[in-house]
């Protein structure tokens, strides 16, 4: 990412207070304001340093293994016999998911700020693994917060984090999932802000985190734009990505925001069904509220309290959503929909059998939407689906449903 490239996106940057439209901001205790100001100042300074982005690009290329392929899914295309389907293979990036892009950027930032300790929250564990990876490489102490329920259903990633030298702190409060892990990470940051950098894993939280994470993840969309023009000599008609917090989706969408012919579709987790109340579809069924330092769409009960989310995917099991997605929903630039646990499982098994690719459960939600989208397409059109992560971590869940 060059500085020149980054600054061409000013149209969609948040305002000086960190708002995307009416969403975003900094809803935090006063004690955190200096830390956020320090972070914003450091990031704004680094944005103007060509050396920083040269270092970032070198790490993406030589450590993370970018660019990731844009793969033509011939068998999946033949299955639907409609538009040509391409898969952006973030599952092939180092550590097995798109999460490595953001952690590389933030660890470089943390080093520049002189921080000695790194903390993070994780649900599916992919962000935790990516954070533990870059912290190990940088020689920094690392602590990962993870809900106890997620510790149990994402054991392979817990083991990977420990092997990388990170401390994994289980969280036993609340639903013992990503929401509660984020709460504990924020409490830790409040107590240790002088020497600790909090690597938030998605486009959520107080300003400037949503902007920073989006910028670091936008490499996904920039590569996709170049690769699809090489392969098809045109831009795609549809981009499809799963949305929990929404970092992989905004990373794919962002470089296409000015190209109105490209339809942007975010797919949330409908869990056991939207009518069941057991889902994680914040944009589809939530309403604006304040959560984890930001104003965004949020699952709430009749009293305005946070409604507990549910998804078969630990990475989507979050009651809020990235603030820029809330803006894009109300702006109408992106469309948000949802699929159930059952539909996601079916899509995961279909992709595995047709293309030999086992997707993460998160990515399976985006793939599941093809069942609804493809009948509306024509053979002349092009669809790109972001495979945000690989399914190794979800094997215990998949095996329960394998006949």
From TrEMBL:
Entry EC number(s): 4.2.1.20
PROSITE patterns, sorted: TRP_SYNTHASE_BETA
One Pfam family named in its UniProt record: PALP
Pathway: Amino-acid biosynthesis; L-tryptophan biosynthesis; L-tryptophan from chorismate: step 5/5
GO MF, any single term: tryptophan synthase activity
GO cellular component: cytoplasm
UniProt KW keywords: Amino-acid biosynthesis, Aromatic amino acid biosynthesis, Lyase, Pyridoxal phosphate, Tryptophan biosynthesis
Enzyme class, broadest EC rank: lyase
Highest taxon listed in the record's lineage: Bacteria
Gene3D superfamilies, alphabetized: 3.40.50.1100
Modified residues (N6-(pyridoxal phosphate)lysine): 99
Needed cofactors: pyridoxal 5'-phosphate
Reaction equation(s) it catalyzes: (1S,2R)-1-C-(indol-3-yl)glycerol 3-phosphate + L-serine = D-glyceraldehyde 3-phosphate + L-tryptophan + H2O
Record-linked PANTHER family: TRYPTOPHAN SYNTHASE, TRYPTOPHAN SYNTHASE-RELATED
Similarity comment text for this entry: Belongs to the TrpB family.
HAMAP family according to UniProt: Trp_synth_beta
Quaternary structure annotation from Swiss-Prot or TrEMBL: Tetramer of two alpha and two beta chains.
Name of this chain's protein: Tryptophan synthase beta chain
């Amino acid at each position: 990412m060059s500085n020149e490239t980054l600054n061409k996106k000013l149209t969609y940057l948040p305002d000086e207070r960190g708002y995307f439209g009416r969403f975003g901001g900094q809803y935090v205790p006063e004690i955190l304001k200096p830390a956020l100001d320090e972070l914003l100042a450091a990031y704004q300074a680094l944005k103007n340093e060509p050396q920083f982005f040269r270092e970032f690009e070198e790490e993406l290329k030589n450590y993370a293994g970018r660019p990731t392929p844009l793969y033509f899914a011939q068998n999946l295309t033949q299955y639907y016999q409609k538009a040509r389907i391409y898969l952006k293979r973030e599952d092939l990036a180092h550590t097995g998911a798109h999460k490595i892009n953001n952690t590389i950027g933030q660890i470089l930032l943390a080093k520049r700020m002189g921080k000695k300790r790194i903390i993070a929250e994780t649900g599916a564990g992919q962000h935790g693994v990516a954070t533990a990876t870059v912290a190990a490489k940088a020689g920094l102490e690392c602590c990962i917060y993870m809900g106890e329920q997620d510790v149990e259903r994402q054991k392979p990633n817990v083991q990977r984090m420990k092997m990388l030298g990170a401390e994994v702190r289980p969280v036993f409060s609340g639903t013992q999932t990503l929401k509660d892990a984020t709460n504990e990470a924020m409490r830790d940051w409040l107590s240790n802000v002088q020497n600790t950098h909090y690597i938030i894993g998605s486009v959520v939280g107080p300003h400037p985190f949503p902007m920073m994470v989006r910028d670091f993840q936008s490499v996904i969309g920039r590569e996709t734009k170049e690769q699809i023009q090489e392969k098809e000599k045109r831009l795609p008609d549809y981009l499809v990505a799963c949305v929990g917090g929404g970092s992989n989706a905004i990373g794919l969408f962002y470089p296409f925001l000015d190209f109105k012919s490209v339809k942007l579709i975010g797919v949330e987790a409908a869990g056991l069904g939207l009518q069941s109340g057991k889902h994680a579809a914040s944009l589809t069924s939530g309403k604006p509220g304040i959560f984890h330092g930001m104003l965004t769409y949020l699952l709430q009960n009749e009293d305005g309290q946070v409604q507990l989310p549910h998804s078969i995917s630990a990475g989507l099991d979050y009651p809020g959503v990235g603030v820029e997605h809330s803006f894009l929903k109300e702006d109408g630039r992106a469309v948000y929909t949802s699929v159930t646990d059952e539909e996601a499982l079916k899509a995961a098994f279909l992709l595995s059998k047709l293309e030999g690719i086992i997707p993460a459960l998160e990515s399976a939600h985006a793939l599941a939407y093809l069942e609804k989208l493809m009948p509306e397409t024509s053979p002349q059109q092009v669809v790109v689906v972001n495979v945000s992560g690989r399914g190794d971590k979800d094997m215990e869940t998949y095996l329960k449903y394998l006949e």
